[in-house]
Amino acid sequence: MSQVDQDYAKKRSAFRMSMIEKEPVYMLLSMDGEDIDPVLDELGAGGARLWSSKHYDRFYEGQLIGPAVLLLDEIGMPVVYPIVKWKNWPVIGVQFIDMEEKEREMIFRFLFKLERKKMQTKETKRRS
């Protein structure tokens, strides 16, 4: 793992955000020749929390499950290289390793857009 990846992993909690319930974000990956698409519960610059009851048993700690693609609405499809850090039914915690700067920037843009959308939703509810 590069120094940049280690630095982002340390700071991940500051940049990690929960996804909007009715607007799922998926990670596309292939395991044993089968395409699977777990839903992201949280996303950050250094990793994600996946929700996958159907494929939970296929993951194990220390497993490299990449390359994988994140489907970030209106932003793009960054390629990430996740490694499983922990599991707790039905959630899997992954850390992204060896990520290119353009992929990291796409994730930051998506998180910024998500934060703005959440703030606008709160404003709208407050005015109602």
Written description of the protein model:
The chain contains 2 helices and 9 strands. By secondary structure, it is of the alpha+beta class. The protein has a single domain (3-127), classed as Thrombin, subunit H (Beta Barrel). The longest helix has 27 residues, at 101-127. It is globular, with a radius of gyration of 15 Å.
Topology:
Blueprint: H1 3-15, E1 17-18, E2 25-31, E3 34-36, E4 39-43, E5 47-51, E6 68-71, E7 79-80, E8 82-88, E9 91-96, H2 101-127
Antiparallel strand pairs: 1-4, 2-3, 2-4, 2-6, 4-5, 5-9, 6-7, 8-9
- Head-to-tail CA distance between termini: 48 Å
Query: What kind of sheet is the major sheet?
Result: 9 strands, antiparallel
Share of helix, binned = 25-40%
Let me know the number of strands: 9
What would you call the shape?
A: globular
Written as H for each helix and E for each strand, in order along the chain, the element string is: HEEEEEEEEEH
Key terms:
128 residues, alpha+beta, Thrombin, subunit H, nine-stranded antiparallel sheet, 2 helices, globular
